[in-house]
Amino acid sequence: MKSVIVGTAGHIDHGKTALVKALTGIDADRLEEEKRRGITIDIGFAHLELAAPDGDLLRLGFVDVPGHERFVRNMLAGVGGIDLVLLVIAADEGIKPQTREHFDICRLLSVRHGITVLTKSDLVDPETLEVVRLEVEDFLRGSFLDTAKAPIIAVSSLAGAGIEELKSTLVKVAEEIPARDSAGLVRLPIDRVFTMKGFGTVVTGTLISGSVHKEDELELFPEARRVRVRGVQVHGQSAGQATAGQRTALNLAGASTDQLTRGMTLATSGTLTAVSCFDVEVSLLASAKPLKDRARVHFHAYTSETIARVVLYGNKQLAGGESGFAQLRLARPTLLVPGDRFIIRQFSPVITIGGGLVVENAPPHKFQNTAEYVQVLQQLSAADVEAIGVRVSAAGMRGITIAETMARTGWTRKRVIMMLPSLPQISRVGDFLITNSALEQIQKDLLSTLDTFHQNNPLVVGISREELRGHFENIPQEVFTRVVEGTLQAGKFEPSGELVRLPGRGVVMKDEEAESKKIIEDAFSSAGLKVPAMKDVLASLKVDRARAQKIVTLLLRDKVLVKISEDLLFHKNALNDLRKRMTDEKARSARIDVARFKELTGVTRKYAIPLLEYLDREHVTRRVGDERLIL
Questions:
Q1: pLDDT of 459 over the 80 cut
Q2: In angstroms, rounded to a whole number, what is the distance separating the alpha carbons of residues 93 and 523?
Q3: In order of start, what are the domains of the chain with their CATH numbers?
Q4: What per-residue confidence (pLDDT) applies to 208?
Q5: Pick from 205, 146, 184: which is nearest to 5 by CA?
Q6: Single pTM value for the model
Q7: What pLDDT, on a 0 to 100 scale, did the predictor assign at position 296?
Q8: Helix (H, G, I), strand (E, B) or coil at 592
């Protein structure tokens, strides 16, 4: 069953509520004061099911809004989620101030479908009705309600004239409206909060995306409180689920009525983030006074309302009828994603002056060039799938995660991933999205860093991955690992033990360094197991201590020298000879103690104990009490 939300709009006392009642049989005025005064003060709701030409049922949810200028803020809370508007104009009065303001609001919110209804047609003669019709046609010309695209229907809510025609027209127009995204992330702006006896806390709203089921866990914004859905109702009837485009009531566990209020939003848990600062494309009505940079305005989006400061990009002010990019800074955070529309009203006196489109809900803290950033915003405002590419490109070598992409688009993870094949310039690296050009730049930077390292460290074979990682701390680990592995596979790096190096680059020694290396190696080779102190060997060299230490490190890396304790190094040949002696000793006796070891090797206890412990670590011997078992 397709669901469409229909909103009323029009001047006070032009018959909006009576029209809804004539269509649905439901009186949308629910407040005592509304019934006493005979005017709509707050938004009201009704519903109707009609048969479509193909035999399917069409479910219409009506949002009836107040027409009095004092209650425009309530009107805005109801009109934000509608698919189709009924612009109601009384035939005996014609176009009035709130007709114009409500119509402007619908245009600013980019409502694309509607029907103009001339109510109270029974109160005027045919000639007057025709004059009003011509006046209305002229008023609507060029808009989404232009009579070339949208009908004008005269009705009498009391007599019933024109109601059936209006119903059949509603079916035709509703069929043209694309279905909302029921597979998307849940977003339900709350417009009513109350307690129902026997159930507890209940909230209502128009489900603008996603589907909600009983026992679902949702997140309440801006508080980020987790709640559980105990029950679901659609148009007053219990239901297994509510889908996008339906008037929805949810019985909640985890929040009381004093913790909830109109303007909050329920959404899929752990996906979206409330924001108080975001970038927009704002448009002013032609009748509006100039909007100055950093002016305060009243901000309305869906059911939320707060004060905002408008920071214009590259302009000191916007004139009436002009559009531009700006950052809105809210007094209270709210849940918004790119593509959402909003209304701004003058701070004082409070009148509607404009509205616009949310372009970026995670703007950068800093940017170098305003003109360049405005170009990015222009690309984002005009893009859909390509907007992912714009955002990933703007992130540079940091990339953005799929979770960030979801929060900045309002898309599900599945949808983001499905869109990636249409973005060949983007690569997915684990949970990160990054441009191919950024990956190439990281690789170039890695090669450049390694080249610089070789130049500055001629006596070192290569750099460890950990040390190389330290030069790229702003790059996500997954991305860094992918680039390093790809560079190795491409042969632009080559491994050298635990190190990486550029192909063909190794240790480059000067004459005195090569001579020093030979002196060190000969000193330990000739000493056997009675090795000299390293400080004494280094003191005899012509090179400085820093280069001498690097030469020793090189000898250790190549396993020419082996370090068996903090201050004892041995030549590999001496240790290999020791292993052979232990093998020969095993033929005589499987056990050896310290005394026999000293006798066998001719070393003092200073060397004997570290050497025996080394043999234990190498599994040549195993200590058993005061003896060693030769393995």
A1: no
A2: 111
A3: 2-176 (3.40.50.300), 187-268 (2.40.30.10), 275-360 (2.40.30.10), 383-508 (1.10.10.10), 511-630 (1.10.10.10)
A4: 93
A5: 205
A6: 0.79
A7: 97
A8: strand
Q: Can you state the angle between helices 370-382 and 386-395, rounded to 10 degrees?
A: 150
Q: How confident is the model at residue 282 (pLDDT cuts 50, 70, 90)?
A: very high
pLDDT in tens, 433-450: 999 999 999 999 999 999
Amino acid in position 177:
I
- Contact between 537 and 525 (Cβ < 8 Å): no
Backbone angles phi, psi at 508, to 5 degrees: -120, 115
* Under 8 Å between Cβ of 47 and 62: yes
For 213-234, write each residue's pLDDT tens digit: 999 999 999 988 999 999 999 9
Q: Is the dihedral of CA 445, 451, 456, 461 positive or negative?
A: positive
Query: How many C-beta atoms surround the C-beta of residue 26 within 10 A?
Result: 19
Strands 304-312 and 44-51: unpaired
Is residue 579 predicted with pLDDT exceeding 60?
A: yes
Instruction: Kindly state the helix (H) or strand (E) to which residue 490 belongs, with its residue range.
Output: none
Q: What is the DSSP letter of 116?
A: E
Q: Per the structure block, which two tokens stand in for 411?
A: 């898309």
How many C-beta atoms lie closer than 10 Å to residue 114's C-beta?
25
Cis omega (within 30 of 0) on the bond before 222?
A: yes
**CA-derived radius of gyration, the chain:** 39
- In this prediction, what percent of the chain has a pLDDT beyond 90? 65
Under a CB-based contact definition with an 8 Å cutoff, are residues 24 and 59 in contact?
no
